[in-house]
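My main concern about presentation is that the manuscript never shows what a single data entry looks like. Each protein is reduced to its one-letter sequence and a matching series of backbone shape codes. For the editor and my fellow referees, an illustration may be useful. For illustration, here is how one protein appears when written out as sequence plus structure tokens:
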Amino acid sequence: MKTTGIHHIAIICSDYERSKKFYVETLGFSVINETFRAERNSYKLDLRVGENSQIELFSFPNPPQRVGNPEACGLRHLAFEVEDIEQTVVYLNYHNVEVENIRVDEITGKKFTFFKDPDNLPLEIYQR
């Protein structure tokens, strides 16, 4: 098997309009396609992340809560590469997004930090 990259990451949100605003307006991801699936009473929003990646944002009626412990088995967090981490932190703070202190990856020497989406999904920004 030969993979060429990650095509998309799927996220289920609890409040579609709030999450759509966060990912489109705050994080600046562009909308590829938005679909309402009446039979499921559900939206699917395809978002462009960078040049080659996508996020599929889903809404479902009454989804179960995410496991709260970040060290639980399963997906731990999503990391987005940024050109300037300090500038990105200022931008996120301006948009009322609480961001942890910037740290340095002891293996790569690169700066990184974490913040959360409206459903407390842990998101990371990582210096290019």
About this structure: The longest strand covers residues 30-37. The beta strands are 8-13, 30-37, 42-49, 53-59, 78-82, 103-104, 111-116, 122-127. Residues 16-26 form the longest helix (11 residues).
